[in-house]
Write a structure and sequence with these properties.
Length: about 240
């Protein structure tokens, strides 16, 4: 996935009203960028952090700038939660996710389930077997037991719990169901569930695993040109 424009660099000042971030550009000018991330953004919102923003040429946009990256511990970290679906879509089309490479048809944003949900990707093979793929954005990482471990979720997510139940229903109906955790950084070795942030999600996720829902954490390679899936990581399931 390529960024829509050449990124501009600056320093993070503050986020406010969830969707706004003040950025001081390297030339000294301060701009307000759209913050495309409604989560807690654990470990990201430190004043003075080096950040990068994209610029839109669309005259109808109220905010022409979008916050894309932040540098943490000398690592690029993606903060735009609209990007993981684009990253995964490109990987699916390229057949670069080995466990999902056998499907011939890829559909995005398909209605499914009992709770008026939409699945990020519905994959179908030549035998009409279905695979429901939900994509989750991850960026928070901690040092634990001498390993850098990504953590999801980093705040309570009732929507995430709903998706787990919907995917378990798909398994009950004889379909394959997968959650792909797109970790927008490449400096971690494993992922675990954020029990300290959302015990309900964690317990439901462990139950979903036992139920047959597959969960695949993937790290990303990030440059100032774009973001691509890098490699699958271990999933720590102990709680």
């Amino acid at each position: 996935m390529h960024f829509p424009s050449t990124l501009l660099s600056g320093r993070f000042i503050r986020r406010y009203k969830r969707f706004f971030a003040d950025i001081e550009l390297d030339n000294g000018r301060t701009v307000t960028a759209h913050c495309p991330n409604t989560g807690s953004m654990q470990g990201v919102l430190t004043s003075g952090n080096k950040v990068w923003i994209s610029q839109s040429s669309d005259p109808k946009r109220k905010l022409p700038y979008t916050w894309e990256l932040v540098e943490i511990d000398k690592t690029y970290v993606g903060v735009n939660t609209q990007n993981p679906n684009k990253i995964v879509s490109k990987a699916l089309l390229a057949g670069s996710i080995s466990s999902l490479a056998t499907y011939s048809t890829i559909q995005a944003e398909v209605k499914y389930g009992n709770e008026n949900s939409r699945i990020d990707f519905l994959l179908t093979d030549i035998h009409h077997n279905r695979c429901y793929v939900e994509v989750k954005n991850v960026h928070y990482v901690k040092e634990e037991n001498k390993r850098r471990v990504a953590i999801f979720p980093d705040s309570a997510t009732t929507r995430g719990v709903k998706h787990l139940h919907e995917l378990m229903t798909m398994v009950d109906q004889g379909h394959r169901a997968v959650i792909l955790y797109c970790i927008q950084r490449n400096d971690c070795e494993a992922m675990r569930f954020g029990m300290e942030f959302d015990p309900l999600y964690t317990k439901t996720a462990v139950n979903a695993l036992k139920h047959g829902v597959e969960m695949i954490p993937y790290s990303c390679n990030i440059t100032l040109s774009g973001i691509n899936l890098y490699k699958p990581l271990d999933l720590i399931t102990e709680i």
